[in-house]
């Protein structure tokens, strides 16, 4: 079999039962290659179990930023027979599968002839290195040899990972890595040649929830209360780990209702506060979201979406919570709904989320999804610049006379705040309707004043919010939100090579809806295509509701697996070529 | 401004809307007096309540106040205390509020031992929603929601708070002004999570536990020392049926508070910490 020549990208898959270190294979590869100055992204698909079953994870590496993963690969490490069976047809012509021929009998598997099977005595070599558990590291060594990269950076990664377990563990892992590498060098001729060459620039490898944590830390978050729920849990665990480094108090609350009410109490009392969860936990928070709207307390709620309904697919991805984010909670009140498209958004928009929450004194719902939350990506954040921190209107001491008008009716709807502890600023906030002092009221004129004061904030906010992001320019418009961003940009590249041009419109801020801006962007359209990760077309409905515009074609995925750029391109091509 | 304060400093012009004779009046009066006695700064005091008759109290006390959601006063107050742990925070829950819908928060709150006083207006009914059976009502209670008598046994808030680690637990009677004031004063002076179960006659909906009933059936204990000297003794004491209902300080102990165990507070209240420049180099280095 002629070895496959790949240009400047390589796609590697690792598969095996849960608990065999599948994700650490792709993560460590991504980190080593990031240190080399290359760009990587990872994806992982695992079942909702701790041991056994079938998990797989992929790493996609290139000389420039990788936009999308794909579902076919150049190389695979199979840690069990099942992985060979399930994925051998996903290996491109000339690609290879690394497997342990001393453990796995592949005779009865119908493997395409175009795939090279590379036996590496993984288990034996791990044992000889001193630790059976280091099997995945032997596999990684073999990968480096096959793709023609030096294993030196990988050694530094193993040091990073294992130093806290002692020098001996590091040495064992180094031996395991070298053994896998040397075995391939000595016994295998098949190479996957490529032109991967790092520029040695310093970059960072970060998960989506870590990027949110970074955004929180940089924004001056002081309090996070949360209850674990996949895929939102790593916001809690990342910030818990950092809490003493950055003076953030993190509480693992008794439930999500408590988590969100704690965050609201903290935000109300003058610190930046947030909670993080997934759809099921967020569903419990509705009443409190409405409370934050009513008492005008700043709070940021992160919902890392997974597919529902109900417990749904805990470890898979989806975009089914948009309508809940827009409508949860009783009554009408201002809120901001943000959807992050990638890691950069997770950092930048988190910063904005806290500014808007405090400036407009309202709940901000920040949507991500498993695809972003769990994905590691090589990032180039500039952390030297200080970010803009806007704490909003705080009442000056001169206005705090012991008879403070906390909910003063103002032209922009925003009333200066005091917080408990401020001299002369005392007032009582209440979930009941109230007057400008916070005193409960029920009479029409007073109720009207307060309802309209709050509503005015939406108009003020809508004006301040940035317009949707537009990539490229074409009469074929494709509107997306959330983690479909990069795969759709990849689709844009693929389609361009085939002679189709598309313009990609990313909705980062969904509520308040920028009606005028969206109408303006869509004015010259010939086709409008929506790409969404839900069944009912949630953003599509929102678009029609606010603009009267109905799309010409809808692409929807609601099976829990992330959309690839190739798939989106194919679907768009199907439509455009029929015209 | 450390001059002597008087009850007037904590009073509002507005008059409470409770039914004439409601036990909540006694709670409000005693709370104001207790605040005078500990010389609490109204601007550094926050009274957080849920929703219910008694939970309207923050409207009528001239400190910071928050009437939150039914059952959620405790988590809201927890967040607020963490934001500024120098503030004196009082949580006012109803028996339905704190021990029905909010019980999950009630029990976990005492595990944390935040320096916050929780008072419960225990009237055996859901006053604000017109008198349905509350979780503290005795088995067999007949109200509009249990017209044939309740089948569920009742919840004993004091016992529950003790089980969960409350470091100050007391029971008081809303009509015993000096006793209630003294108990609240001690509860606020206590360094840690305090619970005060307040027997509060609802003159409109509770026809069993009336002033008459309590005046005859309360066993007032001396307030100079706790009734029980150990937690297990206190739990047994609360769970053992007594001829009369004991009021007084049931148990008190000093344990490290939540605030004392969180190093993040060492630089002062979080609300006062500067967030304009945060160096994340360290966080990034660990990811490169
Ligand atoms: C989520 C929710 N459920 C129900 C209610 C209605 N509600 C208001 S007060 C109350 C019960 C109040 O009883 P309690 O807490 O004992 O206070 P009391 O009125 O007796 O002082 C209920 C059920 C509500 N406000 N919110
Ligand atoms: S209904 Fe009962 S608890 Fe409510 S105000 Fe009237 S007397 Fe008090
Ligand atoms: Mg009650």
Q: How many strands appear in the DSSP assignment of chain B? A: 10
Count of structural domains of chain A: 4
Give the CATH architecture of the largest domain in chain A: 3-Layer(aba) Sandwich
How many structural domains does the protein architecture of chain B include?
1
- What is the CA–CA distance across the termini of chain A? 41 Å
**Lateral strand order in the biggest sheet of chain B:** 2-1-3-4-8-7-10-9
Would you state the CATH class of chain B? Alpha Beta
Shape of chain B: globular
Sheet with most strands of chain B: 8 strands, mixed
Q: Helix/strand/pairing class of chain B, anyone?
A: alpha/beta
CATH architecture term of chain B: 3-Layer(aba) Sandwich
Classified in CATH, the superfamily of chain B is Thiamin diphosphate (ThDP)-binding fold, Pyr/PP domains
In quaternary terms, these chains amount to heterodimer
- Tally of helical runs of chain A: 19
Give me the count of strands of chain A: 21
Helix content percent band of chain B: 25-40%
CATH uppermost class of the largest domain in chain A: Alpha Beta
Q: Strand pairing plus helix content of chain A: what structural class?
A: alpha/beta
| Shape category of chain A | globular
Overall residue-averaged pLDDT value of chain B: 97
């Amino acid at each position: 079999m002629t070895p496959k020549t790949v240009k400047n990208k390589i796609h590697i898959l690792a598969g095996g039962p849960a608990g065999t270190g599948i994700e650490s294979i792709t993560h460590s590869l991504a980190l080593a290659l990031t240190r080399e100055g290359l760009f990587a992204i990872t994806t992982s698909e695992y079942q909702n179990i701790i041991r056994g079953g079938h998990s797989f994870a992929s790493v996609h590496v290139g000389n420039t930023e990788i936009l999308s993963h794909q579902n076919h690969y150049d190389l695979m490490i199979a840690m069990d027979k099942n992985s060979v069976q399930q994925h051998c047809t996903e290996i491109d012509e000339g690609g290879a599968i690394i497997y342990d021929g001393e453990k796995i009998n592949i005779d009865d598997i119908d493997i395409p002839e175009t795939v090279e099977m590379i036996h590496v005595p993984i288990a034996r070599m791990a044992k000889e290195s001193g630790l059976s558990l280091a099997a995945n590291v032997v596999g990684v060594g073999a990968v480096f040899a096959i793709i023609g990269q030096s294993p030196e950076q990988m050694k530094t990664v193993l040091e990073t990972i294992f130093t806290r377990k002692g020098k001996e563990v590091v040495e064992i892992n180094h031996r395991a890595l070298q053994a896998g590498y040397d075995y391939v060098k000595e016994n295998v001729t098949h190479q996957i040649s490529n032109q991967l060459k790092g520029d040695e620039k310093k970059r960072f490898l970060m998960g989506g929830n870590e990027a949110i944590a970074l955004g929180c830390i940089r924004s001056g978050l002081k309090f996070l209360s949360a209850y674990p729920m996949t895929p939102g849990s790593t916001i809690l665990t990342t910030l818990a780990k950092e809490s003493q480094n950055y003076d953030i108090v993190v509480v693992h609350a008794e439930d999500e209702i408590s988590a969100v009410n704690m965050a609201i109490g903290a935000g109300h009392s003058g610190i930046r506060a947030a909670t993080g969860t997934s759809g099921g936990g967020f569903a419990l928070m509705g009443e409190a979201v409405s409370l934050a709207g009513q008492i005008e307390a700043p709070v940021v709620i992160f919902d890392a979406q997974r597919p529902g309904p109900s417990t749904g697919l805990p470890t898979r991805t989806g975009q089914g919570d948009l309508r809940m984010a827009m409508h949860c909670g009783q009554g009408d009140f201002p809120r901001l709904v943000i959807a992050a498209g990638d890691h950069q958004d997770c950092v930048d928009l988190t910063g904005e989320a806290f500014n808007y929450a405090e400036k407009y004194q309202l709940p901000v719902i920040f949507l991500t999804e498993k695809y972003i939350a769990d994905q590691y990506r090589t990032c180039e954040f500039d952390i030297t610049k200080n970010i803009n921190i806007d704490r909003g209107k705080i009442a000056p001491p001169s206005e705090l006379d012991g008879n403070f008008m906390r909910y003063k009716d103002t032209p922009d709807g925003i009333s200066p705040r005091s917080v408990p502890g401020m001299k002369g600023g005392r007032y009582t906030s209440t979930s009941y309707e109230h007057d400008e002092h916070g005193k409960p009221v029920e009479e029409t004129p007073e109720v009207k004043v307060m309802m309209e004061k709050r509503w005015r904030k939406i108009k003020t906010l809508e004006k301040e919010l940035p317009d949707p992001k537009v990539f490229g320019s074409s009469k074929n418009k494709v509107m997306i939100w959330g983690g479909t961003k990069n795969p759709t940009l990849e689709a844009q590249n693929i389609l361009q090579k085939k002679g189709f041009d598309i313009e990609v419109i990313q909705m980062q801020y969904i509520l308040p809806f920028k009606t005028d801006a969206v109408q303006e962007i869509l004015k010259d359209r010939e086709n409008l295509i929506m790409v969404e990760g839900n069944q009912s077309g949630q953003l599509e409905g929102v678009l029609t509701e606010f603009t009267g515009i109905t799309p010409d074609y809808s692409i929807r995925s609601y099976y829990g697996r992330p959309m690839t750029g190739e798939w989106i391109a194919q679907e768009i091509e199907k439509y455009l070529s029929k015209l | 401004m450390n001059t002597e304060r008087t009850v007037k400093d904590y009073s509002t012009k507005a008059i409470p809307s409770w039914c004439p004779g409601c036990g909540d009046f006694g709670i409000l009066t005693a709370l104001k007096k207790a605040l005078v006695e500990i010389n609490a700064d109204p601007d550094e005091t926050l009274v957080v309540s849920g929703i219910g008759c008694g939970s309207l109290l923050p409207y009528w006390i001239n400190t910071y106040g928050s009437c939150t959601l039914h059952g959620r006063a405790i988590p809201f107050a927890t967040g607020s205390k963490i934001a500024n742990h120098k503030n004196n925070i009082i949580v006012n829950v109803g028996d339905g509020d704190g021990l029905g819908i909010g019980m999950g928060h009630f029990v976990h709150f005492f595990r944390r031992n935040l320096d916050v006083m929780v008072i419960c207006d225990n009237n055996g009914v859901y006053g604000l929603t017109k008198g349905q059976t509350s979780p503290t009502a005795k088995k067999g209670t007949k109200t509009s929601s249990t017209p044939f008598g309740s089948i569920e046994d009742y919840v004993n808030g004091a016992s529950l708070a003790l089980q969960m680690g409350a470091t100050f637990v007391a029971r008081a009677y809303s009509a015993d002004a000096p006793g209630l004031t003294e108990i609240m004063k001690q509860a606020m002076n206590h360094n840690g999570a305090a619970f005060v179960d307040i027997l509060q006659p609802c003159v409109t909906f509770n026809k069993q536990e009336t002033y008459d009933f309590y005046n005859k059936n309360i066993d007032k204990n001396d307030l100079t020392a706790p009734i029980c000297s150990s937690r297990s003794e206190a739990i047994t004491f609360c769970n053992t049926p007594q001829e009369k209902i004991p009021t007084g300080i049931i148990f008190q102990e000093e344990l490290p508070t939540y605030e004392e165990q969180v190093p993040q507070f060492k630089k002062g209240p979080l609300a006062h910490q500067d967030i304009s420049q945060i160096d994340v180099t360290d966080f990034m280095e660990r990811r490169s």
